[in-house]
Amino acid sequence: MSMEKTIIYLKAEQSSYVDHEMIHIGDIASVYCGDKKKEEEIRNIILYEFDENKEKEGRIFLSILLVIEKISEQIPCGEVRNVGELDMVVYYKSKNAENKKWVQTAKILFIGATCFFGTGITVMGYNNDVDMAKVFGQLYRTFVGQKPGGPTFVELFYSIGLALGVFLFFNHVPGKKVTNEPTPIQVQMRLYEQDVNQTFLLGASRKGEELDVAGNSRDQ
To answer: Among 15, 34, 56, 184, which one has the highest count of C-beta atoms within 10 angstroms of its own C-beta?
Structure first.
């Protein structure tokens, strides 16, 4: 009489972040099994261990085959079905690693200043290219019937509209978001993160740095 197989579902994430040395399956993937005891056992299976004495930060690359192998060793009668990623990158940063707040603050200020002045210069460059001063003068003469002698309400409305347009486009006003949708910056950051992970994984696979079956790196 054959032993009934245990169906195990995995949903591996492309990238995971951990702050402890022992990397378990539960750290990098969601696990579902009808047998909750076995499900907990699978979550606690160790895949890799960082050496905190040698490295405070690091990353490793894992193949889903390594995960399946570890599960098969623990549960021989199990059938693993992965509905997630095939290759994964795990980023590690020790809890004891120094977090210099002034460095983070400096980065934020630098990025904020770059975006502010960069956007301002871009807007001014565009205004000069299309000769917005002449356009404002023509609009003023159209509505008022005389030549403007200096800045007018047209420039004021343009400035207000430009600021509101920026807030609406980036879906954010000071203190909160305009809607629940992700902002264009968030979308681009997620796409950038995916590209970085894919580049890391492709490079690790070509160099044989990815942990594959039998705990060995894949040789290319």
So the answer is: 15
